[in-house]
Amino acid sequence: MPVPPAVEIQSVPAGSAGALERADDSVDLLLDAGRRPGEVLVLTTGEPHPWQQHEQSFGADRYWAQLEEGNDVFYADAAQCRPVRREVVVLAVNGGSPAVARQALAAALDRATRLVVLCGDPGLIPAQQG
After folding, report:
1. Does the pLDDT value for residue 76 go beyond 70?
2. Neighbour-count burial of 65, counting CB atoms closer than 10 A to its CB (0-12 exposed, 13-18 middle, 19+ buried)
3. Which of 19, 31, 122, 130 sits most deeply, having the most CB atoms within 10 A of its CB?
4. pLDDT higher than 50, residue 130
5. How far apart are CA 111 and CA 20, in angstroms?
6. Span 11-20, average pLDDT
7. How many Å is the maximal CA-CA distance in the chain?
8. Full 3-state SS string of the chain
9. Could you tell me which residues come within 8 angstroms of residue 70 by beta carbon, excluding any fewer than 6 positions away?
10. CA–CA separation, 28 vs 82, rounded Å?
11. Please, what sign has the CA dihedral across residues 63, 67, 71, 72?
């Protein structure tokens, strides 16, 4: 899978059980470093992020409207997220098969304009990136 030249990949090694926590830590670091919340998209491959579950409890229309508004960090399932571009995509590989993880990484690379933070198996990073 080719990496777009403008997109950097950072790896945060984590097992599936710790991927969401590493993703949350990564989001905190990004925001602390000056990223605006609307620049960050968090994708998951397994169980939805707790914030996603919370926001979906208000209904699908309200949940997806937040993505369109782009004012806050948005949390979604990597396989079901609507097409959107954000400067940073944080990918939490918190479940699913290796094929699912590779598809999610491809989706993250397609959605990111500057940076993908991979919270999971660093072996998923394409060899061309090294």
Report:
1. yes
2. exposed
3. 19
4. no
5. 19
6. 94
7. 42
8. CCCCCCCEEEEEECCCCCHHHHHHHHHHHHHHCCCCHHHEEEEECCCCCHHHHHHHCCCHHHHHHHHHHCCCCEEEECCCCCCCCEEEEEEECCCCCHHHHHHHHHHHHHHEEEEEEEEECHHHCCHHHC
9. 38, 84, 86
10. 24
11. positive
Mean pLDDT computed over every residue of the chain? 91
Question: For residue 65, what are its two tokens?
Answer: 């409207």
Taking the C-alpha atoms of residue 82 and residue 43, their distance in angstroms, rounded to an integer, is: 11
- Put residue 114 in one of left, alpha, beta given phi > 0 → left and psi -120 to 50 → alpha: alpha
pTM: 0.91
Mean pLDDT, residues 42-64: 95
Contacts of 107 (CB under 8 A, 6+ apart): 43, 78, 79, 81
